Every structure is written in C-alpha cells, then in structure tokens.
Amino acid sequence: MELEYVYKRPSAISSEADGYCPGCLHSTANRIIAEVLDEMDAVGRTIAVFPVGCAVLSAGYFLTDMTIAAHGRAPAVACAIKRCRPDRLVFTYQGDGDLAAIGMCETIHTANRGENITVIFINNSIFGMTGGQMAPTTLIGQASTTGGPSRNPDEVGYPFKMCELINQLEAPKYIARFALDSVPHIREAKKGIKRAFSIQMNGGGYSFVELISNCSTNWKTTPLKSLKFMREKMIPYYPLGEFRKPEEEE
Amino acid sequence: MEHKILIAGFGGQGVLLMGQLLCYGAFAERKKVLMLPSYGGQQRGGTSNCTVIISDEDIGSPSVRHYDTIVAMNEPSYKLFRKSLKSGGHILVNSSLVKVTRAMDENAVSVPISELSREAGSEKTANIVMLGALAAECGMVGKAFVQEAVKQLLGRKKPDMLGCNLDALDAGYSVIEKTHGKE
Amino acid sequence: MDFEFLEGCEAIAEAAVRAGCRFFAGYPITPQTEVPEYMSRRMPEVGGIFLQGESEIAAINMVYGAGASGVYAMTSSSSIGIALKTEGISYLAAARIPAVILNFQRGGPGIGNITASQSDYWQCVKGPGSGGHRCMVFSPSTIQECVDIMGMAFEKAFRDRNPVFVLLDGSIGNIKEPVKLPDMKPVPDKDAFDWCLSGCEGRAPRQLLPILPEDPSKFAEHATEMYARWQKEDVLVAEDLPDDAEVIVTAYGTAGRIAGACVKRLRKEGLKIGMIRPLTVSPFPIASFRKLDAGSTRLIIDVEMAKPAQMVEDVRLAVNGRIRVEALEIPGGIIPTDEDVYEGITGIIKGVNENGA
Question: Band of the pLDDT at A248, cuts 50, 70, 90?
C-alpha cells in the first residue's frame, strides 16, 4: 500500500528540535515561511537575513543561504543582497525591538526606496531574548521590566503601528498584518507571505508582512492564555488586514 | 628647484583654470606637480584660491608658509595674502581691481589684464593674460608646454577662441619680460 | 598623455572601479563627499550599484550585504562617520565578509573640524568596533600610491575574507596630482567564491554568521593565525635607510610625504638621516624598526598630524626600548608646512643633542 504524505517537515526547516520557549509562535512563523518556500519551489533561490533578538534563533533551523545582520540593520543588508542578486528571493525576519526601535531608520528608508525585498515582522509587544523589556510595540497598560507594571503613554509614548506607518509611504507594494493566534489566522498569514514573496519574485517591489505573535514567557502567562491576550488586547490595537496590495491582486 | 604659487580671486575669475593650465604644462614637462584648490565655507559668491607647487623633486606639504609667487585677482585677495609672500617674491596683481603700484609695494607687479585681453581680442581671455604673466614669473615651465596646455584644454572646447587665448598668453609673458627687464 | 591630473577622491574612486569594485554605499561627509558623488555617476556606467545610505550605519550594512553576495564592495567616510560604521566593521570581521573602507581622517574628537588629520589611527588600527579584531590598514602618502593600492586592498579583503581600511586624510582627498591610473580589470565572478550567498540550489546551504560558534576558539585561532601571516607576508613599507643613519624619521600618509621631503633636505644639509614610511600600518612594519642598528641609530622621530601622537606607540613597541623615540606632534586639523616639520625635526634633534641621550 502506498502511503501519501499529508503533513511533513518543510524542506527548508532542519530536523533539529528548536530552542524557542514552549508555546512560542516563532516556530509557527518559521514553518509557514518554509512551507511557502516549498510551494514556490524557492528554497534553493532564497537568501534569508536574520536579526538580533529571539528571531535570530531561526538562523539555526532554516536550511537556506543566510546571514545575520547587526541589531536593526537587516533591511540594509537585505537590500544590498537583493541588488547584487536580483533573481534571488531575499527576506528579513525581525522582531519588534530590532525592526521598530534600533532599526526604525533602516526599516523606513528601505521601505521608502521600494527595495524589492520582503520584511517579515514578528510583533509580540516585548523584548523577548533579553527578558521582557518594553518594546516600541508594548501596549498601553502592559507590564515590562523597564516600563513598569503598566505602560504609561504620558511618559513613554504610544505603541508604534508599523503597518500604518509604512502605509504612509508611496513606494511599498504590499503591506499586511496577520496574527498567529488561530488556525484560520495562520492560514491567512501564510497566504499573505506567499503573496509577498510572489510580488517580490515578479519584480514587484517592497513587501511588509507583520505577524502578531506571543511571548508567554515574558508576558508571564501560559501559552494558551497568551493566545487570549493576542485576541483580546493586541488585535484590537493592531487591526488585521491587507493595508495595501497591488491592483491586479484585488 | 621648487616654486610655490598661490592664485586667489573670487569665483568666476578663472582662478582654478589658471592653476589647472599651469599644472598641465608643468607635468607635460615631467615636473612634479601638486594643486590644492580651496573654497570659502559658503557655497556661492565667496573667494576661491588655489595653491600650485611645481618641483623637480617629490613634493612635501600642500600647505605653504610663504609663497614664491602670488596672483591677486582682486583687492581682498591682495590684502589677505600679501603677508604670505616670501621676501623677494612677487605678487602679480590684476591692475583693474587692485590699485597697488610698484611705488607702494616693491614686490607688486601690475598686470593690466583687462586692457591686454581686449587687445588680444576678447576680455574673456583676461585670466590667460595672467597665466602668461604667472608662467613667465615662475620660470619652471617652458612656454611651449604652457601653450600646449592652452591648446589641449581650451582649444578643443572653443577652437575659435584659441588664437585670442594664445595672443593673451603672449601678452602676459611680455608684461613680466618688460618688468624684469627694467630691473 | 598617459597621466591624468586628478583630485585624490576622484582618482581613488576610479581606481576602485578599475580594481573591480561594483558596489558602493556611502553617506555625505566632508572631506570625502566627492567619493560618493563620483560613484553615483560612475557605478551605473560600469553596471555597478550605487546606494546612498540613510546613515553611515546603513551604508556599512549595505556593504555587508554586497560583500556577502560576493561583490567587490566599498564604502567611504571620515572619522566620525567611521565611528558609526565600526559596529558594522566588527560584524564584517566576525562573519568573514570582505569589504574595503576608506577613511579620510579629519580633526577630532567630535565634529572637530574638516581639515586633514591623523587622529584616527587608533580607530582603524586598534580593533574598530568591538571584540578586538584587526583590519588590514593601508596608509598611502600620494595619490599615485592610493591608486596603486586599491587593487591590492580588494584582493587582500577577498583573500582573507576580512575588512580592509585605506587610511587617508582630507588633504590627500582634495589635492590634485598627476596620476597614472591602472587598467580596467575584469570583474571577479561572484559565483566563483565558494563561501558567498547565492541560494543553495544543488549544494549545502551557506551561512555567514557574525555570531561565535559553540567553540569560540575557532574564530580566535583563525584570526590570530591570519594576523601573524600578515606580519610575515603583507607588510608594505618605503625604507630610505643609509647605513650610517643616526636619525630615522617615521611617518605615514600626508605626514609621511612632508617628512620625506624634509629628510631629503636635511640629508643635503649633511645630516645622517633616514626614513621609514609605512604603507601598511596594520600589519605594522615591525621588522624595519627591529633591524635598525642601535649602535649607529640613536634617535627615531615619529611625525604625526595628531596630538598626542598615536602611531608612536607601535613604533615604541617595535623598537622595544633599544633606541630613543620622540614624537613631533601636530594637532589634528592642521596640515603642517614643510618648514613646520623641518623646524620640528631639527628642534627635536637639537634638544636631544643638548640634553644628551
């Protein structure tokens, strides 16, 4: 009897057990990216740029050509790789501290130049690797080890809405926010990543995909409760959807 | 032998062009050459000057304490740089704009570049008159090489002006020959 | 005519293009803005890529991406701009990505001034960024030397997979001299480098990681071995050492050319004097100093456009106390005249003669 594979490890993900905290949705984000690469038959043409922060752990599990950029600089590195090798699929994978704090300048300018790369942004509203410090995306009222038990906007301002910010620019071609809290949302996210990669491989231009994620460890909660926090607190502040997409896609 | 020159004036007087032409002549003659252009801090309307060093040996510093020869295309340049002239050196002044005579400054040589350039056929050649005077004064570059530099750099762009330019160059040379002949 | 009369910045940029540079990222800063301006015109003509970074930091990271792709990539800046790039430079060293970096030094610290200086020797030579790595650092004195070095700079960067500096200053960038440019070299095939990122089709994936592997000694051993090999094979130095030299002058870059002219003058005046002019300050020409005979040479004078002098520390290490070392220190931001250096050197000699060794 011949058995059919209905579910298997994507070819771009190594068989090594990942080192993310239990319940962390980075592994889900890694997996759907790798699935898209398989579906597009693009693993051998991909160059990934990983950041500094928890997201850098991905470098240990992806089986593509890759480098790691200095904290916040992934878009500058990626855009140069893409310009030198325009037929390759080049993406960055960055957390919120990396992309929206130290790397805000590179994030905005790379988007503004309309570089033909894909930026994948994991927003879990906190600094993960260093242990729960306030991120640019930490919600009002949310606890962090440097912002106290409750983020106070009078003192430290408001959480950045990155999709909305980038949507002010002329050049980007695809801007979308998805969440990884449920199977339907994960399916949507995967479609969005595929759309972004396809736009890039067709020479379309800059794409930005934000994925609302979790950090049960530093949120000091359980993985299941973290999903609830995403639905009840994060998604209302960070509305999901495609903010911009090419006309032919509509 | 080494000769250190400063050419100073305001923008549009051809200060850098004079330096450039003299340098081309000098290195065609296989001299060592260095030019240091310098502009005022402002982007427009300021003074400009350039240092030119011509030498038989490797050139050291582009920065110069005392110049062998200075060209002052306008009054402010004369006032600013007169003190930087080596004792016994000459400061060639554009007599239309710098009212300094030999009697007032024994190191000054008046070069009537406006009049002489008109005689050469175009006032646009005023800086070439001064170039002739400068090349004659410095004595480090053969006249044929300076003429060749004028032909190469200016002749191609404005072939119809070449005759005027070469006449202007001659006129500048004769000013110095006459001046020093009298000494 | 086989010579061209070019400004330093332009000549150096063109020499890089002819050496095979096909990627340039920069950011405006005096006194080197002419380099990015030139490259913005020139790169499209040769099928290369020019990017104006949103900052010096972005520019060095663009170079990181281009180098990782196997392309001869360069950036250029000045002192404070290089300070911003140093994080990226240490990442280049760690990830073993080659690049060439021009540093047109200006007076400092801080904004300082825009005039030429040699106040950033330490910045380039002593582990720029973090982690105590080294870059090869060329230190040419004339525009012709700059132009002749550019090809080598890229070759060594790619041979070692390590960033290379060309240490310059505002004077050499802005003067014009007759220069013979090298012929246009063929651009290296980026796919011929067996380490660069190109997509893993048909081979194992490649990783260029600025992160120490589980065994940190691996990188440390590689780096230590590489630096030792430089000292044996890659030192460039211009020596002018008469047998009977009692005084040796040493200087690099613009100070080197000024001091060189001064040494010739002093020798004509009858002084027994020689010169050691490093063309690489990393690796430092230690052997040139080690071989000096302490019996005949009684004084070494280091001339620098920096106060306090910086290279003098490496001179003292090389000499190891065998010969007296004095420094003529001209504060950064001042280009000394020939007379300044002549008076400085003769003043030091006079002082030493009067006070005894």
Answer: low
